[in-house]
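The material for today's practical consists of a large collection of protein records. A record pairs a protein's sequence with a compact description of its fold. Instead of coordinates, the fold is spelled out as a row of discrete tokens. We will come back to this pairing of sequence and fold again and again. Here is such a record, shown just as it appears in the course material.
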Amino acid sequence: MAKKAVKSPDEMSFLDHLEELRWHLIRSTLAVVIIGSFAFLMKGFIFDTIIFGPKNMDFPTYRFFCSIANWLNQIQSFTVIDSSFCGDEFPFSIQSREMGGQFSAHIWTSIWAGFIVGFPYVLYEMWKFISPGLHANERKNSRGFILIASFLFFIGVLFGYYIVAPLSINFLGSYVVSESVLNEFDLDSYIGTLKISVLACGILFELPIIIFFLTKVGLVTPELMKKYRKIALVIVLILSAVITPPDVTSQIIVAIPVIFLYQISIYISAMVLRKERRKAEKEKKANKNVKPN
């Protein structure tokens, strides 16, 4: 039996594109489910080591800030960094108040772990769907897209896990309005705080990739980004306030890498435009050299 001929993107109808997208989504979902199944079986490591790691005072981030706080407090006459990083344990406990709470948390945590670990493959499936609509030179110039985007995402995830999440847990877990109120957090609330910190940073660190494609389609220019740099700074501070506890130190710690990424994005946007201009000049010269019949 003859194989069905593969249609080019120009020959595909809208329904053909939807069918193609459906299979990419199915393969991405299967990858997430398979990886999530392995995460489900690794319950002890996922929860005791990773999820509840920032709850313990021996977490590397707390030890690092504690050592800095002790050093700065020795050479300064005032407290520079909060010494709560040096405590023995957090004054809160985690509980599950629903019959299926722990099982539900186990399922959803495994799915999110599958998405984070399988992010490069999900990105690959998205790229496979988009790339046929690009020109050959555009596919060539975007060859390292999956590698760079995955690298930035994982850097953001690590930043969220080791910086943003511990700062949030330390502040919110230690905050009290009265000694009469006990901090007993629900399991879903704790995992939700950790998840938002990790995923939000992973997405924020994709800023250079987003700017690259927005520049390619003509929606963003380096001049525009420089013009609205102050507004972007305010937006960055607002985003930092959303994903971190409401203290100035945490917001600054989160804002610094995002501002750095914004500056890198300006250079990336300028680089893309330079390449586009060179390409246009080469095509113009080539058209001039073509002699009319």
Q: What stands out?
A: Residues 248-289 form the longest helix (42 residues). Strands lie at 92-95, 183-186. Residues 1-5 have pLDDT under 50 and may be disordered.
